[in-house]
């Protein structure tokens, strides 16, 4: 190899490493802001930051699914059906781009399924019937790649699906319980995993098991989680315990 070619390769390597480092820093900044974001304005600011980052790295699957995640949050926070549907649709545009770039993106499949399924729920049960199989497919694909996404998120999502679906449409309490148990193994500090399992136990009339799992949640050290999330989880746990006692 000639010295000229060798030097060009060296310069390219330096540029490549520099770009990777810049992308990593941008992603770290986006994730930090996402963790502290609370208001709709916070998420719109984060949206703009992510869009600017995509202008620098237009083929970054990591940025696309993060933009989808922002739209999912906005869809959940907004009140009107039309706005919810709008943002869940935007979410799916980004997650589909993620999967086109990287078919092995667990987060891409997870948020694609989540936004598709939630949009179906907003539109009503008959609309959501069309989303059940694609939703399951995305969550099962996520599990095959990385089941730990969002602290057991794909198992939690399937647990909720089997819990809330009517039996004639595929509802299955046994499967729901299995998925929530797996979600707890993968996300032992995430309250929604415990609440979901407790609800499945209650629906199955296993009240003692439900109480035990709720007491575990109430006793957990959740300092690593957002304070408002922890307060919400514990309030929900107390409400479920009260409902069990009235049975």
Index terms:
single chain; 247 residues; mainly alpha; Serine Threonine Protein Phosphatase 5, Tetratricopeptide repeat; 2 domains; disordered N terminus
What report would you give on this structure?
This protein is 79% helix and 0% strand. It has 247 residues and is mainly alpha-helical. The termini are far apart. 38% of the residues are buried. The model is unreliable at 3-17 (pLDDT under 50).
Largest sheet: none
Shape, please? Answer: globular
How much strand? under 5%
SS summary, helix count: 12
- The helicity comes to over 70%
State the end-to-end distance. Answer: 80 Å
Q: List how many beta strands DSSP finds.
A: 0
| CATH domain class name of the largest domain | Mainly Alpha
Using the CA coordinates, give the radius of gyration: 21 Å
Quickly give the structural class: mainly alpha
Question: Which CATH-level-2 architecture of the largest domain?
Answer: Alpha Horseshoe
Mean pLDDT: 90
> What is CATH's topology name of the largest domain?
Serine Threonine Protein Phosphatase 5, Tetratricopeptide repeat
- Give the SSE order as H and E letters: HHHHHHHHHHHH
| Multimeric state | single chain
Low-confidence stretches: 3-17
Number of domains: 2
CATH superfamily of the largest domain: Tetratricopeptide repeat domain
